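quick one: 5-O-phosphono-beta-D-ribofuranose bound model?
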Amino acid sequence: MKNNKNLKVAIVMGSQSDYKTMKLAEKVLKNIAINFETKIISAHRTPKRMYDFAISAKKNNFGVIIAGAGGSAHLPGMIAALTTIPVLGVPIESKKLKGLDSILSIAQMPKGVPVGTLAIGEDGAINAALLAAAIIANNNSKVKKKLENWRRSQSRSVKKRPS
Ligand code: RP5
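yep, here:
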């Protein structure tokens, strides 16, 4: 890793069809001013692209990888097998099983290669970005402040009474 202070986040996803969910992660990272790169990488359709990305992620200065995948969702686990950079998996809501297939595939990693699994769909994408920010914040005080501001503004946005 070149510079511990300026680690980037990678947002990868198995298909163009995942982008409507994963773009919410981009939105949060933009808001917290974290550098990121977004790519389509499929474990089964573009295995070489996945391999090349994962083995060069450290030298490319990525500090966290967010991987969204749906169905038989092996992308996060396969990337995690190839690098020790923390991998956060976002289970995409699949058409047939509403994301139950995705979340079980991502969460049920056998011991030895962990993937941090978030909620199915949009909530998962947003929380993956917030968790990535929290990991980056450990070594980056600017990001830490931005994340704390984000939380404060969320609290302020909650009305005291329903209307
Ligand atoms: C997975 O298959 C992708 O992550 C996507 O969620 C799912 C369906 O892909 P498409 O058939 O829409 O390209 O690899």
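The mean pLDDT is 96.
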